[in-house]
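Page 47, continued from p. 46.
Same chain as before, 528 aa.
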Amino acid sequence: MGKTKLRADLKVIILTLILGASIILHSGPILGADDFATPERLEYVNVDLGDILRDLAGIGKFKILFAHEFSQKATMIIEAGSFLKQTVGEIATNHGLKEKWLNSNTVVIGDERSLAQIETGDVNLHVLPLQYTPSLSVAKALETVVSSYKIRYDFKTNEIAVMANSLELQNIKALINEGDRDLPLINMEVKVVEVTADFLQAVGLSSSASSQLKVYPLTQKQMAIISEHTGGTLLARQEVISFNKQQEALLFGDQIPDLAEEKLAGSVNYQIGYIDLGTNIDYSTRIQQEAEAELVVQLQAKVTTVEKQEDGPVGTKQRQLKTTVGLKPGETLLLTGALSRDEFSAMKSSRYELSFLSSLFNRENDAGAKAVATMILMAPSFTEKIAYQTPQVVPGITVNKSIEPILREQPKAIGEINTTNIPYIIKKHDTVIGLSRKFGIRMESIIKVNQLQNPSIIKTNTVLLIPIPNERIYVLKHQETIWRLAKRYGTTVAVLKDLNGIKDVTKLCTGQKIILPVPVTRIANSKY
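Result:
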C-alpha cells in the first residue's frame, strides 16, 4: 500500500473514533478491576527507568507516555502478584516523577511542569520513513504508545503511518530513533561452569551454592579473578550471533517424550510432546548506546527436573527467573542456580535417555573437590556491521552485508555455501522462526533460500527448503538404525524422528540423508 491509502484508511478509522468519544484528563489514577497483576517475579538490574516503565506497560497491556526526557538507571524487584498500574505510579513517585492518567488505559509520566503542558487534542496522521529496521518490528514496539489499530506499516516502502497527537508523536519518534540505527551484530559467548565451595568463597559468591536462580553483572576485574581460580570446570561452551533485539533460545539438557491422552466422543487420542530437562535460557540483547557499548539483556531462565519413576505420567519440577540487566562495556552476566550434578544424578532413570546431560556431567571437577553448583556465564560483544536492503523488507530482521539481497525475479532457490537444501512440508502452526530453532539454523537462511517476501505468512502443506549445514547431514549406511545413530551422537530416537519427519523407523534405506542435531564428527559414544 502507498502513502495515500495509508492516510485514507487511518483517517476513516481514527476520525470516527475521535468524533464518537472525548478524552477526559484525570490528575489521579483510574485503577480498579482492570489493573493487571504480574504472574511472575520481575527483576531489573541497572536498567534505564523508562525501559522498566515501558516493559511493565507492555506486560499490563496499557499505554505509557513520557512528558519529557529523563535518564535514570534503576535496580528493583517486582514481586509476583503486584498490580502493574499501581506499581508504575509508585516507581514514578520514588524517582521524583508524577503520573497523570488520561483514561483507564493511558498514563503520562513527567514532572509537574511537563504534565501541565501536555496536549492531547491535536491528532493527525504522520507517515514516518524507516532506514534500517523493518516496519513490522517498529509497529509492534509502538503498541505501548498507541493502540495497534492506529498503526499501519508498509513492507514495500518500509514506512510507518500512525494517527497520533503531539505527545504520542514525541514518544513514537524517541522509540524509532532508539531502534532504527545501523547496528552491529551481537556475539554472545555462553559457558557452563561447575564450581566448588572454595571457588564460590574466593570470588565472593558463597551464597550462590543454593539452587536459586540469580543473575549478577560481573566486571572485568571480577572475571579475571574467576578465570585465575582453579575451582571451576568448563562443562560446555557455545557462541550465538544475533541481531539487535532478536530472541534466542538455549537448552543445556535433553528432550524426553511426554505422551498426552485426550478422550473425544468415546475414543482416545494420544499426542506426543516433548519436555525439556535441564537449563533453558531464552534471551534477547538490545544495544542501548552503541558509542558507549552499553547493552540490555532480557533473560528468562528455567530449570526443569523430573521425578525418578519407571511408569505413569512424567512429573516435573521447575524453578525460573525473569530478569532484565544492563551491562556496561566488558561486563559479563553470571547466572547461578543452573541444573547441578546432584540434581542430574537424582533423576537418572532407565525409562528415558539423558544423553546430553550424561555427557555434560561425565567430567569430574579439575580441582578434585566436590562440585556444589553449576553456573552460566554470558559475555556479549559486538561483531561486524549489518546493512538493510530497503526494497526487500523482511519483517523482524535486518540483512547482513555478506548476505546476497533477495531478488524477486530469480525463480530458482539460492543455495547457502556448505549447506544442503532439505525439503520440508509445512505443518499447521509452523513459523519461520520456529523452524529455524527446530533445525538449529538462522532464520534469514530460510528466508534467503526460499526467497520469502513476507516470512510471517507460510502456507500449510506447501514445501519449504531448509538449508542444513553439510556437517550435520549423515548418509545412512547398510544395516544402520536410528537407534544406533541416537546412541552414537548423544541424542534420542524421538529427536531424530522429529528432525527428519520419520514415521516408521523400519522403512529407512541405505544412502538416506539423516539430519543430526550435532556435527557428524561430534561422536558421543564410539561403541555405536
